[in-house]
Write a structure and sequence with these properties.
The chain has about 325 residues and is an alpha/beta fold. The chain is about 40% helix and about 15% strand. It has a single domain, classed as TIM Barrel (Alpha-Beta Barrel), CATH 3.20.20.140. The strands form three sheets. The chain has a six-stranded parallel β-sheet. It starts with 7 loop residues before the first strand and ends in a 14-residue tail after the last strand.
Length: about 325
């Protein structure tokens, strides 16, 4: 009788026992480029290494980059950065909203999209050294709804999930459309809610909705504390309190989500450990920071990786 594969977190240096992941920034970016953010590119490997070294010095051990294909994710630089800093790096395949891509390039990418995602998860990331694989699929919803591009990409992500077991991480525009996303991915395409990570929800501070989403079994990634004057900071603790008091503390993740060069001048991912973790301990007890920063990410990003699936061709990085 065939036994199920042990769950592992797929890092750029290989598969990792979830127990070894350590303190994790569950949603962030070392590199990112988009035509809607001119002049704000994150494209400097030296700056990325400084971020990781500071994070490690503060006690960080793992960093999940949600930058998908076609947005300057610098896949080839990630293994060296991981080795230099000692921080485990998890990379993403997937696509963002259509606005981040040239329309002609996007049409090209649509061909064999599920196969491309699957290949990057099981064979290797385009533009990276041989064997460097993605550990999650990044997709994105739209503001209070799901358009044709989003539905197409999420269908491909679901197919790649079923082929590989990979978790699916979702950008929610201003925190909206999370119910629509779960209806599409889980009810329509059969992805288990526990394999879905819902990002940016604290940008839409509907605490009843947050409790309901957590009750489905999906993970809620509360992110953005590195952004100056951003609503995520003063909504975060109310969201944490609502979900914890409803008995769903095991569904919460924390991330910095630094997406621009300007934001990199803010505290960044170290803020999770030097400011948020101590306050979480004071507000909710010493066990909660460990749960949100270590135990929950180890479950959220682990998968019983399957190698079989549809074939894919490299569609660009």
């Amino acid at each position: 009788m065939k036994t199920a594969a042990a769950a592992a977190v797929r890092t750029v240096l290989g598969d990792l026992d979830p127990a070894e992941l350590g303190v994790c920034d569950a949603h962030d970016h070392l590199f990112l480029r988009s035509p809607v953010l001119p002049g704000e590119e994150l494209d400097d490997p030296a700056a990325a290494e400084r971020v990781l070294r500071a994070f490690a010095a503060a006690g960080g051990r793992a960093f999940v980059q949600w930058t998908p294909a076609g947005m300057g994710r610098r896949a080839g630089a990630l293994p060296g950065l991981s080795r230099a800093s000692g921080v485990h790096l998890v990379a993403a395949t997937g696509l963002h909203q259509a606005v981040h891509y040239d329309p002609a390039d996007l049409e090209r990418r649509y061909a064999g999209l599920a196969g491309f995602f699957t290949a990057e998860l099981t064979t290797g990331l385009h533009g990276a050294p041989e064997g460097v694989r993605a550990g999650l699929i990044k997709v994105a919803g739209d503001f209070h709804g799901l358009g044709a591009h989003t539905r197409r990409v999420m269908a491909a992500a679901a197919e790649a999930h079923h082929a590989t077991g990979a978790p699916i991480a979702v950008h929610h525009e201003l925190g909206t459309a999370a119910t629509d996303v779960l209806d599409l991915l889980c009810d329509h395409h059969g992805v288990p809610p526990g394999r879905v990570i819902l990002g940016h929800l604290n940008r839409h501070p509907d605490l009843r909705l947050h409790r309901r989403l957590a009750a489905t079994g999906a993970f809620l990634a509360l992110d953005g504390p590195s952004r100056a004057h951003h609503a995520t900071d003063h909504h975060l603790f109310d969201t944490v309190a609502a979900v914890v008091e409803a008995g769903h503390a095991d569904r919460l993740l924390l991330g910095g989500d630094t997406t621009t060069r300007t934001a990199r001048h803010a505290p960044g991912p170290t803020h999770l450990l030097t400011a948020l973790a101590p306050r979480l301990a004071r507000e909710f007890g010493p066990g909660l920071p460990h749960r949100l920063l270590t135990a929950n990410p180890a479950r959220a990003f682990a998968a019983p990786w399957r190698a079989a699936g549809p074939g894919g061709t490299a569609a660009g990085s």
